[in-house]
């Protein structure tokens, strides 16, 4: 029993050291529940972080599309005003 506790502590140290999230079936119940809950919380935080990244990505896409729409609107207005501006300056030069 004592050697299994030492094995468990060494194994937890290995998991913390390597940052590997493994599902492990342990012999004693409290360690199994603790490890399972810890891994579930890590998965939950990964899912939340992934959702935040997706939402932020959609926000950035919206900002970029708004910028491109604004740029396109300004380009259209510039194209509409350019012929009259050219004719004005040509008329002024004559």
TrEMBL record:
Biological source species: Paramecium sonneborni
Protein known as: Uncharacterized protein
């Amino acid at each position: 029993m004592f050697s299994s506790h030492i094995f468990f502590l060494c194994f937890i140290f290995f998991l913390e050291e390597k940052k590997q999230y493994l599902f492990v079936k342990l012999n004693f119940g409290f360690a199994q529940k603790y490890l399972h809950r810890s891994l579930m919380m890590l998965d939950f935080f990964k899912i939340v972080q992934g959702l935040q990244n997706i939402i932020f990505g959609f926000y950035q896409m919206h900002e970029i599309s708004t910028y491109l729409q604004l740029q396109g609107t300004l380009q259209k207005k510039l194209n509409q005003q350019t012929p009259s501006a050219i004719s004005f300056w040509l008329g002024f030069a004559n």
